[in-house]
Design a protein that fits this description.
CATH topology: Nucleoside Triphosphate Pyrophosphohydrolase
Radius of gyration: 14 Å
Structural class: alpha+beta
Largest sheet: 2 strands, antiparallel
Strand content: 15-25%
CATH superfamily: Nucleoside Triphosphate Pyrophosphohydrolase
Number of strands: 4
Length: 111
């Protein structure tokens, strides 16, 4: 199953964009050139206090190995955005967090 990189803010994080860059590098071994906020959603409003902040990382370059937490097992696979949209259309993108991020980006970029 495909999934977008994800992570949380640490207590010492003053800037969300810096936290995004750190999490991206830890989970994928890629460093972003730029990070931009896409949207913020409450996916389970009324059920849970979860908030998803979506960011777009551009001009990413490989920097080396992942730096995973002890409980993470992540296989990095690069693909095109168009392939992710097609996977969403074909009902092959099962991770809800990823589906929401892909579809939000598709709406914003193709207005």
């Amino acid at each position: 199953n495909r999934g977008l990189p994800a992570g949380g803010l640490e207590p010492e994080d003053d800037d969300p964009e810096d936290a995004v860059a750190r999490e991206l590098e830890e989970e994928t071994g890629y460093e972003p050139g730029t990070v931009e906020h896409l949207t913020t959603v409450e996916p389970s409003n009324g059920i849970a206090d979860t908030v998803f902040h979506y960011f777009v990382a551009r001009d990413c370059t490989p920097t080396g190995a992942q730096n995973l937490d002890y409980n993470e097992d992540i296989r990095v696979d690069t693909t095109t955005f168009e392939a992710l949209v097609e996977a969403a259309r074909a009902d092959e993108l099962l991770d809800g967090r990823t589906m929401l991020g892909v579809l939000c980006y598709e709406l914003v970029e193709n207005r």
